[in-house]
Structures are given as structure tokens and as C-alpha cells.
Task: structure prediction
Amino acid sequence: MGFSLKGVGLTHANGFRALRDVDLRVACGERVALVGASGAGKTTLLRVLAAALRPDTGRLSLLGTDPWDASPATLRRLRARIGLVHQAPPIPPRQRVVTAVLAGRLGQWPLWKSLASLLYPLDPEGARHQLARLDLGERLYERCDRLSGGQLQRVALARVLYQQPDLFLADEPVSAMDPALSELTVALLNEEASRRGVTLVASLHAVDLALRHFPRVIGVKEGQVLFDLPAGQVREAQLRELYAAEGSVPMAGLAVLPDAGQPAAAAPPPLRCA
Ligand SMILES: Nc1ncnc2c1ncn2[C@@H]1O[C@H](COP(=O)(O)OP(=O)(O)OP(=O)(O)O)[C@@H](O)[C@H]1O
Result:
């Protein structure tokens, strides 16, 4: 099992109920897109899946473990197996790109190695390799505050690629990128998840990207699952209902709404969810 949620609800500290009674089962190695209007609860759901927010109702299992029943050591090990690309990457502005990428393994390395890597990058070639896949290899020693928003998003992605998590979560990972780069980046995330046999969940504003690249698409509305379908079965009427409050369905490139998405035919990979 990649993860499962049963009756999960979450109320933020200000009293806002962001998730209501969410039931979800995602098998190991599945690739799932979350779509929905702004404020629907996608980030909150991803943070629950990252064991960063604790639900106040329901049951949760991540990679076979209930994080909130686990010992602190088990929770730490579980979190080291989960990688979340944040919508606004929390990278210290003066940090070098290489250090930001290598930070992906801080949860897996012993303390001495983590501290040493913060002072002196221990695996610059490993960081450069992941950055190069995102066409950013030449910015290895740049300061992060000298990058554009889209470049910073790619650094955050390179960090999680370097981490090599078993559960790969991405919160609007291409929101600051142009359509061509968004396409390439979302394709890369899917290739990586398929190749390594890990579970991928990404929230995306551009519905066409979600339908083109992900076999399964979940529509989130007002903290609930409105639909949960193979991409090829998502219909225009469902998308219009999902985005009713916004007035139109957000698309990155194609102006055509799907009557059929395109679930990728993936060869079964070796799975990494035990
Ligand atoms: N830390 C918080 N404290 C209080 N309310 C919050 C907090 N985080 C999110 N919310 C509220 O919870 C609701 C869901 O927010 P969330 O960020 O999960 O939505 P989203 O679907 O990711 O939106 P977007 O697409 O705009 O990123 C929103 O109404 C938001 O204002």
C-alpha cells in the first residue's frame, strides 16, 4: 500500500475545516494528480500525506505505518522516506543551490554528515546530476535568492529527486514555470516515479497537464473528494463542477477540454513501498 486515508478530517488552528471525511487508497507505485480550485484543500491533503499535519479525525496509513501511532524514531524514519516539494520552497535565500539540493538527504544521513554537508557540500556531482535533469546544472554554486521563481521550484524538485523518496509528493511544482517547461518537468516527475516504482501525488492547477501525464486524477472540492477516476474517464461536466467557483477550468496549454485523457501505459516497475 502506498497510503490510505479513512474518514480523515482536519481543522486548521483558526477553526477552518479544510478536509472533511476523506477516504482514499493509493497503491504502491500509482501516479495521481490532485486538481481543484484554489482553497479546495489540496495543500492540506499533501501535508497530511507528508506526516506534517495531524488529522483530527479518521485513520491514516503511510507506506504501511500510521505516523501518529508511531514512536518518534519510526516517525523520523518514515518522514525520511517521504519527499514533499512545497508550493513555495522553504529554502534559505542566501543558501547555495548545491547545499539546498543536498539537503534532500539530511533525514537519511547521520548527524555528522548532515552538519558537514551544510558547511561543505559532500556530493556536488550528485546535486549537479539532478539539477542537470531540470536544465539547471550550471547554477550549482549560485545563491538561491538570485534565482527566478521557476528556477527555485526546479531547485526544490532537484532536492526531492536527490532525496529519492518512496512517497513523492509535489504541491503545484510547476506553478511558476512556462507551459513548455511545465510539460517537461511534469513528464520528468512521472518518468522518475515509474522508473523507481514509487508513489507520486502532485497537485496541479493546469488540468490538461494532469490529464495528459497521470493515470489517475482526483478532484478535490471544499475539503472533499468530488471525483476519483482514471484520467480517461474524467468528463468536462465534472471539471466544470469542480471549478464552478472560479468560472472556468484552468489549462496550461491546450484549449480543448478532454473527453478522454491519456493514461500512460506503464510497464510494472519494482515497487518500493514495503
Ligand atoms: N495554516 C492554515 N491556517 C488556517 N487556514 C488554513 C491554513 N492553511 C490553509 N488554510 C485554509 O484551508 C483551506 C484549504 O487550503 P489549501 O492550501 O489546502 O488549499 P489548496 O487547494 O492547496 O489551495 P491553492 O490551490 O490555492 O494552493 C483554505 O481555505 C485555506 O485558507
Observations:
- Residues 89-164 form one domain.
